[in-house]
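Collaborator request, handled under Task 6.
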Amino acid sequence: MNLNDLRKKHEELLRASSGTPKSSGGTLENYFKVEPGKNIIRILPWKDESHQFYAETAIHRYVNDNGQIQNYYCRKTQGESCPMCDFYFDLWKMHKELGLPPKTRSKFGDLATKIKATPRYYMNVVDRRALENDPSNITGAVKILSVGQKVFKKVIETIFNPDYMDEEDPDNTNVLSLKKGNDFVLELGKSGEYNNYDQSVFRIKKTPAGSDRDIATWMESLHDIHSSIKISEYDAGKEIVQNLRLSVDGARGPSRNEDDDMGDFKFSKEVRV
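Structure tokens returned to the collaborator:
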């Protein structure tokens, strides 16, 4: 693990906050399923210094013609042109051209907010719950955890938190250490109708991740979260944009109804007031 690179990522997250799993490969059974309440996991480092312990991507979410939420994996994460990003900026341009009063919503702004690319992070973790259910399934306990920026920022901040370090050897005793690290309590709660992870935290007590034999098995069983992350096809994005553009075609006025269901993605050609 390269701490200098992690420090740069931490600074990037601080700047940002101030102002379907196929992307990372494998089948659904390879992914950690977050249950309501406290989920105890151990985040694993990568096997060598060639990569960080996490892989990063960004997702545009949209609703298809069947009303299903779909993911389009942003092409800009790999330096490629992204039609969804282009459409996002076009929508805000169209919103601005309406000349509406500040904070007045429009169909263009509503849709732009919905399709904006959001960061996603993938990490290898040991599922403590799976081990409790079947202690013999050492290999199967290694899962891929997919989280958003808020949870990931908690992880990065704690890596550099001196309260979680050994003062005599801080770089080698951060929370990801296999010998003297910390389990992570990923707590899923609710804030209204939305999921909330604000209470998630690393345990204070330092412990080995497992026995030497278990650790060796886990490190040999890491999912390749790095090479398997793929971006979506450009032409597929153009088709999605074409369909989404039809959903707001003709909308030329504000959307002021605060009771609108902002999660249904259903936009008529007539302006709702």
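The cover message to the collaborator said: "The domain at 3-22+35-248 is CATH 3.90.198.10 (Replication Fork Single-Stranded DNA Binding Protein). The beta strands are 37-43, 54-63, 69-73, 118-127, 142-147, 184-191, 194-196, 201-202. Please let us know whether this matches your experimental observations."
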